[in-house]
Amino acid sequence: MKKISKFLSVALGLSMVLAGCSSKEETGGGVSGENEDGKKELVIWDWTDPYLDDKKKPMDIVMDSYQAENPNVELNIEKITNDSLRTKLMAAASANNLPDVAFLDGQWLAEFQAVGMLAPLTEYTDESGHASDYPEKVWDSVVFDGEVYGVPGDGDVRSLLYRTDLMEKAGLDPASPPKTWDELIDVSTKLMEAGKDEGVKYGFALNGGDSEHTSMRSLPWIWDMGGSFVDEEGQPALNSPEVVDTVQFMSDLVKKYKVSPSDSYLNKKVEVQGLVNSGQSAMAIVGSWEWRSDASFLAQEGLKGKLASAPIPVPNGEDPDKAATAVGYGVWVVFDHSKVKDEAWEWIEKVTSPEHQVNIFKDGTGNMPLRLSAYEDPIFTSDPVFQTFVDILPNAQPRPKTLNYELLSQSYRQAIQLVLSGEMTPQEALDEAQAKAEAEWKE
């Protein structure tokens, strides 16, 4: 490890200093592993959403089951918004007060692993057989130098949402959605014409705002062409031909073909959801969780029976049967300082079990399982929309495994905004993004 981010290196340095001058009992339950009643204390930091009143049933089941099987353990769960968790963990590292367990956004794992905060879990995962029950690329994302440092929880994929009623009205086969860029443009134009009398303004709602969703919904196009945000040596590749071609296509959707909103450079997930639910857009790339929670596409009265899902259309000349999709997920980790690692692993086994992941999909946040065995549940054949998620999972790819991911994604999104707003060409904006990434790169 040559260099690490200044933020993480400072946090790690402070945690080491504090560890050297503090007794275990002074540093909180996460370090001592025991509370005032003599019970072992398991300190867990988790995302807020699974504990909301309308989504908490699956977590209630897990907590009740864990407590019944571990009466000598007191669960201390702090619920933290995903946007705040990374900052709070850095502050906790500086104060030598990290939890035992946390649910990290998968894109942060390489960064935390690089500074030695995390405990290897290989002995646990080898015994449990977890590796064989995940898509290969997903499992590879948690392995560093042969050691496992996290276990993926529930997650999501992205697919094309489209209006079947407008397909019929335009004289198109609803069972044959667009599969390539050219077809996406052609179908978008026809759906706009077919739906103009009922308020359809756009064929395709495009994510172009400063949001991670912009990266996650366009990365599949880059991957389809064999590219990525990084090259084979793991160095930044934001101005590679594959990235330039993708951003040029996004620009053409807005400026040349005018099938996407002119203000797409401002449109984040919420704006795209609004365009679909209001009937203004006929198609969009959306996340699997948005169908049943968040945007609740399937529950929209005006759209019932009119929506379908399909793989994301691929760049011209690429194989539609191999259409990539971006998979997002949280990762359960154990911090190296923890004195209750066995108890922490028992928690992780419960919250990553196939049964729990199915419950999350049915009764919780709507996130989908990443455990392959979970798809034996009949819920996934109950609706063609859900079946699409299963069908595309083999082509799912996680974000590049680099501690520089946030730098890459932010630089890329800023380039897209500059292009879609008309301030720069794709090549100019991505050359600038590449220069920024190279200047701030961490090895």
TrEMBL record:
**Pfam families, sorted:** SBP_bac_1
Per the UniProt entry, the signal peptide is 1-19
Q: Which UniProt keywords apply?
A: Signal
Looking up InterPro entries in the UniProt record yields: Bact_solute-bd_prot1 (IPR050490), SBP (IPR006059)
Q: Which CDD domains match?
A: PBP2_UgpB
Record flagged with keyword Signal = yes
Its name, as the record gives it, is Extracellular solute-binding protein
Q: Which organism is it from?
A: Robertmurraya beringensis
